[in-house]
## 1
Amino acid sequence: MRGLTLLLGAALLAAVAAMVMVLPDSPNGSPVSTTGTPPGAGKATPTPAARVFSDPCGTFDTTTPTPYAVTGYWLVPTADHCTWRSQLQAIHRVGGDTVVRLGYGLQPRPVDQDGFVMDSAGDAPDPRYERCEENGMTCVQAAESALKAANPGNRISWTYVYRTDESFGPGLFRCPQMEHPITVGKKVFFRLIAPDDGSDDATCDFSSRGRGYHLILIDGSSDDSLTEILGLADRFAMKVFPALPVAPRDRLVPTRADPRHIGTLTTLTRRILQDYGDRFKDRASLGGVYQPFELQLRKWPDPAEVSTLQVYAEQHDIVEQELPGKPIMVSPYLDARKDKPFTSTPAEVSAGFKELARTGVGIIAPQDSRGTGKVGLYWPNLKGTTVDDRLKPVVGDTSYGDAYHGSTRDYYRAMGEALAELRAEGDDVELWANVEAFEPEGDGACENGGVRGVTDKQRLDEAVALAGPYVSKIISYKWSSFFTCGTPTLAEQVEKDWDRPIPIQAFPGRRGIQDGIEVRGYNLARGTVTLSWHGGEEPRVADSGAVGWSDLTPIPGLPPAVQKLWIPVDWSTVPEGAWVRVEVASADGREGNAPVYFNRAA
């Protein structure tokens, strides 16, 4: 196509007839009217004066010089205190204000005849718990001895283990006469004992009758990592979402939670959250808690029979009791592949979204599932194109339309519609997007034992664009490894190119009596807009700084960094039914990595 400049003169003020165009991505399917430019529109956001703090790990800067569209990241727990500090500073530098911690699982374990906790396979004593001893006995034997001293009929019917890098205060213990920390050298274990009926009896009556009990041995730490990370988050004005204990998995179907252990799981959850409530309930940096047990978002024939949803509901009740006002965040995954059983259409995901919200979660951040290849990034008019080469190991050498029931945008749109219905019913759940910062296959260099590959900022920008105007926040899995490996690292790519335009939505909108187009997205102020469509003789280009209008005012319901711009357009020259490609370039000439499209419907 030949490059000509669109004639956007004063004649458009009177010559363009009003045209209403119904678009898949336009709010309520109607045009948008805009008003005047606020002071400072189109100017760079001022960087606050540097604030620093120092400690044995070094000197840390708490300013945010390169704020990217993604504002939250998962972190893997680490024993290195200086790693926590450097990770939070790096996340904060690129605009991150939210950290989600990966967690650990509660596991039932066999015990051998000598009282040692066995490994998960049941083949040998687990070295992690083998060193747990008290009064010359293993910790299991010591617990059973204490129970039988209270009543000879008492017994331990199940033993569970839970590992963590956290420490706990007195709030962990309901019955101090039977429960306590156990210090072995530099190690600290925590012993919890609860009735095996799941009641977590508050009477602490161990003597009036013999009964079965569950023993929970926590392999903890003498230093509490959560206290430390919350302190850092206070300095960086960030929110932390620590993980709830992960439910034991069904041995036959590991993707499902095992409902047999709900009672013990809720006991452990209650105790940990009681302790959090005692120590952290007034901390602004405790943003909420993260439900780490993954499930696929789909339409369930009978949600009441889904064991994972049962576990969710039970755990989430405990959160509401112990940490009122702190939301639960969950990140289910999507699967749109047509050639696999049990995958879901956007409509089925919409139904599942509503069922998941009813388990008491406050934030649903679905994985976009592009990193695993289970969903593709494409627009409806491009479903006949061949899939990205990086997706072929997952879906083969085929087209997007043949591979998937829909694109990530189709799924987020469907969930956005479900969200509107839930809010109309009084359920104030939030919809975030979790964009996966990896590729389906790689050399595993980013993770020990992993198979995923590194991705790049261009693909990440595309994922942000496709999540579109349906989410209020974008987070990413995960900072540890995937943003910090490779050369250059993904974090370095983001920091270098953070302000490249990322349009997320375009639709017709009038300003006064003049027809035009409104574009929403990141880093759009004073951008140059290019419109093109199949069959068009040349692209049409307009500098919004010269003939248009920019607005940096936050848009309700969208991430605060989303901006909007408008340029005039004579729609009578655009064919009805055309899919219009919209691209935005920054003032310095950098074009966005991902265009947006809209259908110029009749």
## 2
Amino acid sequence: MAAPAAPVWSVDPRTGKQREQVAVEATAEEVDRVVRAAHAARGALADRAVRAAFLRSAADLLDEAGDHVIEAADAETALGPGRLTGELARTTYQLRAFADVVDEGAFLDIVIDHSHPSPATTPPTSASRAPLSAGPVPRPDLRRYKVPLGVVAVYSASNFPLAFSVPGGDTASALAAGCPVVVKAHPDHPGTSELCAALLRMAAGRHGLPEGVVGLVHGFEAGVELVRHPLIAAAGFTGSIRGGRALFDAAAARPVPIPFHGELGSLNPVVVTEAAAQERAEEIGTGLAGSMTLGAGQFCTKPGLVLAPAGAAGDRVVKALTKAVSDTAEGVLLDARMRDAFVAGVRARTALTGVESPVTPGETGENAVAAGFLTVPAARLADGGEHGLLLEECFGPVTVVARYEDEAEITAVLGRLPGNLTATVHLGEGEAGEGDGLAARLLAELTPLAGRVLVNGWPTGVAVAPAQHHGGPYPATTSTSTSVGGTAIERWLRPVTFQATPEALLPPELRDTNPLGLPRRVNGHQAP
């Protein structure tokens, strides 16, 4: 007899106590049922106008239920109504923004090349290929656009119960692409996940779409079963390196491997030049404190390593940072496991030779933690060895300030870093205008390390905009794609070309009459 399904409890992170049972963990059979329902719903999402209307209705329903959604999310995450109000606004904005992307149609990337006669008298053979040239070549009629991959598995993030979870960017972009989704709920906010999934399904029903367009499962084993299911066509993940890499490997090991777009971990280095420290040390120290403690340090873009000068100007940065961090209230992390990992991580780092703790981070009570930061000579990081631990992300309100003596030490430390979501440089006023000085050299070193490079700013806060890129070299992400902004839709599409296909058999998107009025490129030129 099969063991009974394990209950899924909503837990209050402020007390560590169970609140209510909201579901049970999905069995393999249940995962199969949900995935098959999503697979059967693919055709219902084919109409772009319906998809756009569905996304807007989802945003409207989330807004209408805003008080309830925020209350539920706060009870399970302790992120606070203020933070969650902003996150809900971002979430609904994303849904509406993807509806606009669907309406515009440029994401289909339509390219039409009409047949072109060849000036050559001898057709190419298998032994003699036609050379590539810039001029006319033998060419059949070719028409390309992008089609949905199929059912997408979405793995929710712990630290964003809305914007990177059930109604978040992965779900919104996949639905916009025409892909049904099955979301693996995060155990830190199962009640919020159920509520948001119900609202999305209600929105689907308003437009005649089946509930199967948005599936939801709970449980660790369910998450593994999901990525292995033969009808899952792609996956999006936001979480830890360990968990993400295990799922990434499982996706690659399938009989038919699938794209796995994972966001795994990021240190987000910051370089403060000597000139910047001299000009605005107090501003930099205070800004760093705000960025590294935002959301109790539980942002994927938290600056976890800061290279600051070793002299008097750098001392002023550290002094300002000390004051600002000391004035920061204690916070509650998302769950006990993360709190334990944070405390253990800080303990291991402070035990390293040469590491000091001007403000000691750590546990302040049964459930809360205090923010803090560590300092270390940059030479220790450049030398490698046990200090490599300081170059790994520590989730929570802590950062490492590495004090460098010269530019060579900056280069040595940056040369040891893995891939990141962001990289930041703070420059002096005169440096910012130099095209071939220190600023240019630092940007050249930071650019290969990250998907977003900032100058004189802080990386926390990711604007949802067409030009945004939220991704980076491994382990920041497992692909070159972004999970934020309009181009996130590209993850769930694949190109198909129709060659010498009669007009009547072509999809409407590729017909000469352009009945859908879509933007496209014809014979090398943008066409109306």
## 3
Amino acid sequence: MLAHFWVAFAAFLGALVLGEWQMYIRSPLRAWIGAPELYYRAVTAHGSAMGYVFPTLVAMGFGYAIVELALKQPLAGRRWAWTGFFLVVLGTVTAMVPVSLGLATVLYTFYPPLVGNAFYYIGLVLVVAGSWIWVALMSFNLRLWRRENPGATVPLPMFANLAGAYLWAWTSLGAAIEILFLILPVALGFKASIDAGLARVFFSWTLHAIVYFWLMPAYIAYYTLVPRAIGGRLYSDKMARISFVLFLVFSMPIGVHHLFQDPQVGAGMKFLHAVFTGMVSVPTLLTIFTITASVEIAGRLRGGTGVVGWVKRLPWKNPMMLAIAFSFVLLGFGGAGGLINMSYQLDFAVHNTQWITGHFHLIFGGAIVIMYFALAYDLWPHLTGRPLAASRLMRIQLWLWFTGMIVLTFPWHLTGILGMPRRMAYFDYAHPALAPQALPVILSVCGGLVLVVSGFLFILILLRGHRGAQVAPPAFRFSLPVHAAGVLPPALNGFRLWLALMVGLSLVNYGYPIAQLMMLEQTSVPAVPVGAP
């Protein structure tokens, strides 16, 4: 588990520094970059590490911890777990070498008909293959537990963990198909053309649902760590389970909203995906209600009274309390921006502008990553046997991350409204039309610098924890609900119904556009090799 977390945080730190360098390069604080291709190498490395490696390893490490802490049984298949880990590490190195050499500057979304070096795609396939071993082990360990506990209620942390694993197995299939059947044949020299439109549809299968895979560890922390850590109770075990299964169902059939400006998908399918995108707000709103109620319970148990008097009684010096508050604020701003992106009409105004970058970073870099910090702080004493005594430093680190993320992303939203394209290496801020964007860009660079400081402080806190005195930590506990769950209906204690709905809705929402594109003739275009003379 520590191996998964440490490699994840190493990838995170490297990608964080690259992200700040990119913002500095495209800002008015320096002259235009002489070799803009270096900028796009950094964007590819930053996105690939943050999007594929970092959250995947966090989910895997956290999942293995949940098996032992929630099911109270040793992890079965430990050798397979190490195999999956080494596949992820090998895949990361295999992918990053051609990126660093300028042979795979295709960004983390691949952007066909651009085609990079084959080893970049092979590396990503290895990362996904390693994660699929984790999915299999999660299912296998639950089966062993059920065999020893027939008819028992699956603990909420494991139930949520399985929802995330199954979601990832299904959503990663889209990018895997795109790489194996459309991109790799071209990258290996077997074909000279590629169906870019079909490739983008397959990637949209993964593109948005992967965000909910990233969210799963954060949401598990919301429900199973936060109430206990702040001295309260979980408001409703059943509502938590409903939220996770709704994510499982509605996260998949929505990705075409990323293709609103693409001509190869018809308006009818785009409308259908827009409707289902709106449905994803339901489990999010359920979560906001349930966790806010759980936090209120903690405040009232500490003597809070009145409509808002309980807020003052909350343990604001507790890092977990700060993390959940900051995460919800960032999730609120990011979700509000997402309502613009999901609208077929409003998306025209912000598509491919810095608005999208701001929205994306508020959700992932803000709401999600700040909970990754919190769950690491919570788990670390139990993984190392050494206490994390730097509570004040933790609070400073979380405040820096929250402040830096606000200063980073709010100017991006503004420049997006002003029309600034994202993923551009440089701008002429002396031009009268671009001059108003100079100050917001400088502010975003400052926000990124604060995030880098916060990231290094996070690593420092964990390293200091390894140097602490060896102690026997108390038994690890997950949050307890206000009322015992009792006998749950089978639908909230298993996944057959929800997996059937997930697969069925995905096939309905993607089957027609994929089949239509596959039947059309002459849809391929010449591939454009990256790094070729």
## 4
Amino acid sequence: MTTATTSRQRAQDLVARMTEDEKFAWLSGPMAIPLTDELKAQGAIGSAAFYPGVPRLGIPAMQQADASLGISNIGGVRPGDHATGLPSSLLLGATFNRQLAHDSGALVGREARAKGFNVQLAGGANLIREPRGGRNFEYISEDPLLTGELAGHSVAGIQAQGVVSTVKHFVANGQETGRVMVSANLAEAALRESDLLAFQIAIAIGKPGAVMPGYNLVNGHYASENAFLLQQVLKDEWGYAGWVMSDWGATHSTVKAALAGLDVQSGANLDDAHYFGQALRDAVREGQVPQSRIDDMVARILTGLISVGALDAASPDDRMQPVDFSQHKLIAQRQAEEGIVLLTNRNATLPLPQRLARLLVVGEHADHGVLCGGGSSAVTPIGSLQLPGTSIMGMDVAKVVQPSSLVTAIEEESGARDVVFVDGTDRQQVLDAARNAAAVIVFAQEWRSEGLDAVGLALPDDQDALIEAIAGVNPATIVVIQSGGPVTMPWRDRVAAILAAWYLGSGGWPAVAGVLFGRVNPSGRLPVTFPASEAQLPRPGQIDPETTTSNPATPRKGGIIPLDYDLEGSDVGYRWFTREGHQPLFPFGFGLSYTTFELAGLRVSVDGRYSASVEVANTGACTGAVVVQIYVDKQGADGFVRRLAGFTKTTLAAGERATVELDLEPRILARYRVGGDRPGFVIEPGVYRVWAAQHAGDDMLWQDVAIDELRRIAP
């Protein structure tokens, strides 16, 4: 790794020796997955994008791959290719574990590098404002601190392997239905305190080589040509040195986009014009775009590549080293084990005892594997089922079931004399089998994909009624939910236990079985609020997908669709529930364990350093991990509702006690002042209440602290 200054200088030296054709070859390009009967570009591995190298200057080709959850292979563009499927980013969020974020990122970086890719389109850092969002499984949480911290560490892990990572989708990309038509409208101060803050934290930690705006508009301007976001905030204020690439088919202009800060038109064959091709050359010749801007675009790309060492591999063969897929599967398993959330456990039903007489496993394809979210992030390890899914940008996107048999895992982990599997399609068959089982494990599922949102929060395909019926004949019914976000649970009080398992990845089967039978003590905590009903959401209604356009490669239906995010402002997720007094189904940060914990002795410091310490005790009978969460609100009429200001995960043996210390993020205590001579984050005088808690609704342990003078936070 070189310093930013050194990387930039080296990049500028290379740009000075490049021809105009060489420069422009890197400013736009088609998707490197052939559409219809097209052929891949010569030299392209086959994935999101390919940009030709400049061998005479030692500049390798740029090979870009999707995504945060592993190396995808859309359309089988690389026949026979194998990759590790990571659990969803929501599951990563549920771990509250920075080191796991780095480790999983490093896994993706190693596999990308081994396959010859030097740019990974990873780093999903959008806040989850819309719980029904189709792409939420690619994002981490509804909270800016948790999202920024884990996304940043994941990016750092990828880039430590010599592969550039993006962060995306910058910014306020809240939903998929109508994603190319929606304008996220939000006042600057609220945007700075929420969505932008998540990216600011992630970029500071991860130092990504590239940033990708989304398809949406922000306050009336497309994110890919939004000068406020790309130039003023990202490049000028934050000093970002890398490049800004559009999403595929998300460029809408030449001069406006170039001057606003967009550096690359990605997937130009999906746009309605080649904006950064001849049109950009003409704009330079006519004086509408200065030549210095072109040189800056290319220098930023090279800076990002140089900063991670991607220009210094001696040859492609040196990059393509063998991958230890067995070790990678264990990393994915470890992540899954820490991200599964135990939501209810009546009468200590879990962990199940081993060697039961008969277990019933219910769930579509549970004998084959685990569900994977759809779209550009979907990873298809060898042996995956690829079922009919949806269509994005003219390509069929499969509903992928990754090979990781839940039934086999339960057979191996349980030692039960008889494990019976039924897929659930025959209701009477299920009920007959359930009556004679010592316990029933139902694997419910809800598939989400890029390009479309979930319709409501209920489980699809009448699964709620099936679960109700099973619980009616067997009280030892355990529900394991594979989902891309929150779901409602009308049967919650009738089942014995519920696990939120998200999308589990290649190590999913032993992770779930380990939790069910006690080899793993669950320590996941919810990264999103589970609403009791859609009526509790800021926007209970949804945009009609039949009257809108979601794919960039198709003509728009109608005009821009404004979304009023000022309704909740910076109070996203649990902050909104607190402000409105809603009681959720399960609060943000919630999760049970097979042991119990107590917090005591909270001490808070706001003199110079913002920190908290708290005594933690494991008061149960087995080793377990607790996520200590520090929340803060400002009291009074000019205050704000509670916000997560710090967190740490601590493992304690039965009866063990420890004191944990946490640094608090000052910008969480602050408000963003707009305008004037010194805009920025300011901590106002007043009384602040600080909680040490085990979830966002935990009010047991708090301390009030006073701040007497106004404090500005350095940019």
